[in-house]
Every structure is written in C-alpha cells, then in structure tokens.
Design brief:
Its cofactor is heme c. With 308 residues, this protein is mainly alpha-helical. The chain contains 13 helices and 4 strands.
Length: 308
C-alpha cells in the first residue's frame, strides 16, 4: 500500500489538474487564431443536401467569454480548495474537516438531550423510554455489525442478551468495555498439554464440564492434563472474568462447539478484538453516548424475564 501514499501520486494528480486547465487555455488560443478562408458570400464551401451552405460567422462573444470564465474559475478553485495533489488550498477545506464540523454541530445540538441523562444511573436509564430509544439507535449504528441487530451475536461475537459475560455484566464493566475495547487472547496450549492424544482427551474433558456429548474414557484421561488450562479457566472450569476467560461449564460456546473446534483452540489459540468505541480512544461516541449505550446494553440481559 505504500506505493499509493507516496509523493508520486500527489505529483501525478497535480500534473493532470494543471494540464487540464492549460490544455483548455491552449485550445482557446489556437482556435481564436485559426482563420477559416471563406468565399465572397461568407460561406465555407461546405454544402449539404444540395443547397444548405455553411456560413463562416464567428462564435458569439458571450459563448467565448463563458468558456474563458470556466477556465479562470478553475484556476481560482484550485488555489482556494484541494485539487492539486497534496496542496491543501488557501481555505484549508477538506472532507474530513467538513465531516468533523458536522459531527461537532450535531453533538452540540444533542447536548441538551443527553444532559437529562447525566444524573441518571444505568438502572434508571433502562426504565426511561427516550434513553432506551436513543440507546437502541446507538447500538444499531455502532454495535450491530458484530453483535447482530438483535444483540444475540454470532460465532466469535458474544450474545449480549443472555447474562453470560466474559469480563462482567455490571454497568461499570460494560461501560469499561465500550470505552476501552477488549482484547481476548488464548495462547496455543498444545505444548503445555502434551501430545495429540492428550489434546483430544482435554477436549473431551472440557465437553464433559458442560454436560455436552463426549467420550467418558477420554474425559477421565484429560482431567489431569486440564491443569495447564486451569490458570485461566479455573480448576473447576468456571472461568475468570478478571482475565476474560470463558466459563466452560455453561454450554455457551463463543467460537463454536465440538471436539474438532476445541482441539483447534488448544492447538492454535485464539485472539478476539473489540475496538474501543469512545471518542477519547479513537471511537465515535461521546461520554454521554457511552453512558446511554451502557444502560441499553445492560438492560438487554436485565429484563424481568431475563435469565441472569
């Protein structure tokens, strides 16, 4: 990609822009100097359909000056605005700057609306219809791409409605996750577990923890080898939210289910990334928007009929 961002392309665009303007000027000058020889009756000698003769009348002045004005306008435009490669223009306008100005205006316009929520807790906002409507829009625009429009996630993307949380489901933890993002990493563990048979046995032991179909004999053999995994997942396999290590006993499989999937995880490890969503960390959301989105996501797994 470095070939597309070096100085060559800036010069390339600048040359094309300048050549276009100069070419128009040259065309205007050459055509103005070219004289068409006409007959005594002011015709060019071109005849169509036997009696239609082309007159040698000059171009209307207003038409010529209109052409000249477009050339002059393009010169001033390229001085004022970007168009000559990396030259930013005298006005300093840019698409990014225009976008950021629009965002700032929108945030200023919405500030009074969000001000009402600043003194409310996540629990209080979850009972406020307006806050939840705003939170739903924020979720659809910023989170649904990964967690799905119904927030039930998919393979490698957590379900936000079931109360099963890798890092904790309190409003504080959800706020922390949205603000800073998360990096979930399980290193390859095959070397620590043993040979291929040991890895398969551990996979069956992991399946047994949640009551999933498994080979009981292999599970018994894999129990002692599971000690290599216990540092993160715990000796009982119930996970560790401080590390983001999943609970292996609840039959909720983030990256897929079955012997082959677990063996692949043990052999190759897994890295999952959620980017930060807060503007302070490179995202798009203001602190007030993070607060409302936190309340909305918390409400998804804390409805009266939700299983927590």
């Amino acid at each position: 990609m470095s070939d597309f961002v070096n100085n060559f392309w800036s010069i390339y665009i600048a040359v094309i822009a300048a050549a276009g303007v100069l070419g128009c000027l040259l065309l205007l000058i050459l055509t103005a100097r070219k004289k068409v020889v006409s007959a005594d009756d002011n015709t060019t000698g071109h005849v169509w359909d036997g009696d239609l003769r082309e007159l040698n009348n000059p171009m209307p002045r207003w038409w010529m000056w209109l052409f000249v004005s477009t050339v002059v306008f393009s010169i001033f435009y390229l001085i004022a605005y970007p168009g000559m490669g990396s030259f930013a223009g005298q006005f300093g306008w840019s698409q990014v700057g225009a976008y950021e100005a629009e965002v700032r205006k929108a945030e200023a316009d919405l500030e009074p609306l969000y001000a009402r929520f600043t003194a409310m807790s996540a629990e209080e906002m979850s009972k406020d219809g307006q806050a939840m409507a705003i939170g739903a829009n924020l979720f659809q625009n910023n989170c649904a791409q990964c967690h799905s429009s119904d927030a039930r996630g998919g393979k490698s993307f957590p379900n936000l409605t079931d109360g099963d949380w890798l890092h904790g489901g309190t409003p504080e933890k959800i706020h922390e996750t949205i603000t800073n993002g998360r990096i979930g990493m399980m290193p390859p563990m095959a070397a620590a577990v043993g040979d291929a048979d040991d890895v398969a046995n551990v996979a069956h032991y992991v399946l047994s923890l949640s009551g999933s179909p498994h080979d009981a004999t292999k599970a018994v053999l894999g129990k002692d080898k599971f000690v290599a995994c216990a540092a993160c997942h715990g000796a009982d396999g119930k996970g560790n939210q401080a590390l983001g290590a999943p609970n292996l006993t609840d039959d909720i499989w983030l990256h897929g289910w079955g012997e082959a999937v677990i063996i692949d995880m043990i052999n190759n490890g897994k890295t999952n990334v959620m980017p930060p969503q807060a503007k302070e960390n490179g995202g798009k959301l203001t602190p007030a928007q993070v607060d409302v989105l936190t309340a909305y996501i918390w409400s998804l797994s804390n409805k009266p009929d939700a299983a927590n």
